[in-house]
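dumping this here so i dont lose it
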């Protein structure tokens, strides 16, 4: 995992790395020869809607059907939970929590402290995700701070997609592309399915855990940043390995990964409540 950070020493050492928000590069749609190419206008990727946890990063998110009056949700990693790492097979559902989050504006300044009412969902089985329900609604957050939630994409990302990892903890962004997908990503005692592998430009660090991975064109969240192979070890903590359908193992030192988030959307029903029995919901159950 991109380790949760404890204390401020690491922050003092690394703050000099810079905190420039990224603006997505302009791209063009493919067009048949002899026709006019359609210019795609990418969204500007910044820190608005991201949050800083005590040890990780995260973001205020919504589904396409979330309502302004719904309690807002914060997305992060399962390994960032204040309850500790969930064990293999363990799922947390509607667990009381009063955790606080620092809400950032577009330039990366903290503008508010948001508070959880519960851990709506959390696991490190098949994926590495936590979703907190807040005491504030989307409408209250937007009215008070002018910040809208990031939307979870309902579609699986594709190879080559230009993405930005936005860390609220470090107030730092990382831009690269989706290099491919990993059938099984094993790290220590945990196994994750269909993980996103970044191209080498995204050199994420400890504290970036839970950062939203944003599609530069749509501005929507397609994954949540969670781990990377730090020292070239094979399938150990902080050194995940890739396992294909035939059981072949590949180790990619210095390469980082994320967990897709489109599969979360079918599991969230009216009122932003998790219902793991909804059609299309394949998240692990308790």
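and the seq i came up w/
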């Amino acid at each position: 995992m991109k380790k949760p950070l404890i204390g401020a020493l690491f922050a003092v050492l690394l703050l000099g790395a810079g905190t420039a928000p990224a603006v997505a590069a302009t791209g063009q749609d493919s067009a048949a020869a002899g026709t006019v190419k359609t210019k795609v206008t990418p969204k500007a990727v910044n820190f608005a809607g991201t949050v800083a946890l005590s040890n990780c990063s995260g973001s205020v998110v919504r589904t396409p059907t979330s309502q302004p009056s719904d309690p807002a949700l914060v997305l992060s990693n399962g390994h960032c939970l204040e309850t500790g790492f969930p064990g293999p097979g363990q799922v947390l559902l509607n667990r009381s929590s009063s955790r606080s989050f620092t809400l950032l504006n577009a330039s990366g300044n903290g503008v508010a402290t948001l508070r959880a009412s519960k851990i709506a969902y959390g696991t490190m089985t098949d994926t590495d995700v936590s979703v907190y329900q807040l005491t504030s609604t989307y409408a209250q957050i937007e009215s008070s701070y002018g910040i809208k939630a990031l939307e979870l994409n309902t579609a699986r990302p594709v190879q080559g997609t230009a993405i930005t990892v936005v860390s609220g903890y470090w107030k730092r962004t990382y831009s690269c592309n989706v290099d491919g997908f990993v059938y099984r990503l094993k790290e220590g005692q945990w196994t994750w399915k269909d993980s996103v592998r970044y191209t080498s430009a995204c050199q994420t660090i400890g504290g970036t855990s839970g950062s939203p991975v944003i599609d530069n064109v749509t501005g929507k969240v397609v994954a949540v940043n969670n781990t990377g192979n730090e020292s070239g070890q094979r399938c150990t903590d902080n050194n995940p390995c890739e396992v294909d359908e035939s059981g072949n193992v590949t180790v990619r030192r210095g390469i980082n990964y994320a967990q897709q988030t489109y599969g979360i959307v079918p599991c969230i029903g009216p009122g932003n409540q998790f219902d793991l029995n909804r059609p299309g919901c394949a998240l692990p159950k308790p």
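Confidence is low (pLDDT under 50) at residues 7-39.
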